[in-house]
Amino acid sequence: MTYTKGVGGQTPEAALAALSNMTEGVEPIGQPEYQARISRAQALMAQQGLDAVYLNAGTNLFYFTGTRWWPSERLVGVLLPKTGQPVYLGPAFEENTLNQYRVVAGDFQGWQEHESPYALAAGILAQWGARTVGIDESSPFFISNGLAKAAPGLQWVSADAVTAGCRMHKSPAEIALMQRAKDMTMAVHRAAASMLRPGISTLEVAEFIDAAHKRVGAAGSSFCIVLFGVASSFPHGVKHAQTLKENDWVLIDTGCVLHGYNSDITRSYAFGDITDRQRQAFAAEKAAQAAAFEAAQLGRPCGAADDAARRVLAEHGFSPDYALPGLPHRTGHGCGLDIHEWPYLVKGNDQPLAAGMVFSNEPMLVLPGEFGVRLEDHFYMTDNGPRWFTEPSESIDNPLNL
């Protein structure tokens, strides 16, 4: 059996020992940027004719105010007026805890357990004279329904023109955080590949990857998909663990979070001898990924990248559209505080590509009953076009660019 470059040969202990903390000098998003996001949101609200926006606990609340609070059955959020400071809403007993997390200043209005948070919000909106209110598109139905019933005279619309309008354009500070997170995960990929051996299980590899992410400074893996052999033809995996055998195909998709920002990288390679079929598929996948990147030019629609990837796969003899063997899902997704967020590289998406947008590029090639090849790297749009965060795999013989 011939080993692919960088695959196998190391013990887990040695592979871990070769890693070190990569977070030195990294700073989280600061208060001035959060304040700038509020100002940007209010400018978009003026353009959209919105008098106020409700931001629910979760990613949007964190993005605009720095308040990390997970959604639950109790309403926690912010009412943002078209001018002025936001008003924080939450259970009265949580005020002191919420105050520890929020970065952007604003009044707090609490509700007791027997009271209606929706009536509280409606009263504030009435004081503001609001007529049209945007509601966080990620809000659970019980919250959006509760608000609408408490203030039936208001026009309630999705706030995504504001939330997505801000979040899809990353700042230099956001780009820098994602760059470091992706560098960390790429180092973990190389370490994981180096410690593969016959008989190791997918669970053992996932445990190693989690430890490796901790070694480079993350809290651990934010997710991890490890697939061997035929299981690699299932885009998001199978329910059972597998054991690595000689000449198996390997697919590992993993990432971490750094100050809220995600990495998400996939590598596919052979553990042993490489077949002609694998070489053909890898070459097609690499060409499709490159075509999507080249198609991602400023002003062009997001869907152009997906079109380009599918066209190349068809030229290599694989099925068109979503048919198999071929590409069964979109070519890419936005990435930031959420690992999947706007915009998307998908057929028919007319959203123009613009500076600051971040995308995965992963036109996975699935060969049912055989294997799957997913080469996933991310790029961001600059004033001069697309730029990779991580360099794509050089070749099937050197998939980790060693």
From TrEMBL:
Residues 177-383 form the Peptidase M24 domain. Residues 37-168 form the Creatinase N-terminal domain. InterPro entries: Creatin/AminoP/Spt16_N, Creatinase/aminopeptidase-like, Creatinase_N, Pept_M24, Peptidase_M24B. It comes from the Bacteria. This is Metal-dependent dipeptidase. It comes from Simiduia agarivorans (strain DSM 21679 / JCM 13881 / BCRC 17597 / SA1).
